[in-house]
């Protein structure tokens, strides 16, 4: 990790990094695009159970990368839109949709610009998958953006790496980071998790740590009502099995179907 110098250029640095990852991820075995085209499922069983039946629902996947989870929801019957700031990722996702015969819309745009990029469209479900929130500096603005993208009565479903797990070393037991730090983490690393042999030239990235309370409070402040928050003791790719720590969390938060008016007492 380097110092926080250069953090103000986070968007350009992160986009360049993820643009360069796209062909590596599309060609490698980690995402296994041939297997996906053949019918492999990318969603975890608890995700499908917690979201429920998506047939006939409109679903927006924020920060969708190359769209495998987006298209998996389409296979389960949703009308899907994927959004990501990487145009090369959106091109790969659109090509995958054609290969599997699924209708899907993929929009290259920054998350914070999503309402305008989607022409004010709202959705029954907004979905955000694992490894997304760390790339955003302002989780409160993220929550307000999600609320703007939801139709009344719609819900956000988020599944994410647990922030406790993110402060642990690869052994899953040793604390090596400060849970409460909200400073930008500027990292210069040419590697990508999907291919240990690949080397990136756009190696600088900027990430942020967001605590569980911060995320839940941001959603509440944005007017969404939490239905559940579940913690999972499995699913983190870095850890050996059997680690007694929360590794993932999932939550569902609903946008009220109608604003609740204040009750005014008479004299």
Automatic annotation (TrEMBL):
SUPFAM superfamilies: S-adenosyl-L-methionine-dependent methyltransferases. InterPro entries: Methyltransf_12 (IPR013217), SAM-dependent_MTases_sf (IPR029063). This is Class I SAM-dependent methyltransferase. It holds the Pfam family Methyltransf_12. Residues 60-156 form the Methyltransferase type domain. Gene3D superfamilies: Vaccinia Virus protein VP39. Keywords: Methyltransferase, Transferase. The keyword Coiled coil does not apply. GO terms for biological process: methylation. GO terms for molecular function: methyltransferase activity.
């Amino acid at each position: 990790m380097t110092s926080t110098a250069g953090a103000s250029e986070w968007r350009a640095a992160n986009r360049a990094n993820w643009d360069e990852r796209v062909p590596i991820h599309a060609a490698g075995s980690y995402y296994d695009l041939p297997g996906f085209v053949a019918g492999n499922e990318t969603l975890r069983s608890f995700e499908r159970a917690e979201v429920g039946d998506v047939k006939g629902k409109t679903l927006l996947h924020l920060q969708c990368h190359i769209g495998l989870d987006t298209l998996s929801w389409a296979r389960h019957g949703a009308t899907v839109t994927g959004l990501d700031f990487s145009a090369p990722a959106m091109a790969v996702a659109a090509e995958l949709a054609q290969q599997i015969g699924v209708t899907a819309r993929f929009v290259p745009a920054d998350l914070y610009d999503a309402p305008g990029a989607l022409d004010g469209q709202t959705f029954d479900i907004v979905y955000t998958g694992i490894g997304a929130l760390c790339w955003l500096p302002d989780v409160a603005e993220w929550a307000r953006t999600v609320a703007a993208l939801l139709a009344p009565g719609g819900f956000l479903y988020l599944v994410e790496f647990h922030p406790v797990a993110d402060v642990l070393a690869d052994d899953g037991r040793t604390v090596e980071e400060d849970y409460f730090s909200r400073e930008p983490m500027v990292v210069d690393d040419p590697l990508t998790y999907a291919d240990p042999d690949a080397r990136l030239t756009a190696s600088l990235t900027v990430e942020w740590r967001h605590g569980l309370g911060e995320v839940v409070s941001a959603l509440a402040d944005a007017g969404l009502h939490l239905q559940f928050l579940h913690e999972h003791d499995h699913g983190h790719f870095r850890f050996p099995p059997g680690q007694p720590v929360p590794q993932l969390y999932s939550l569902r938060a609903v946008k009220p179907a109608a604003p609740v008016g204040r009750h005014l007492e008479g004299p």
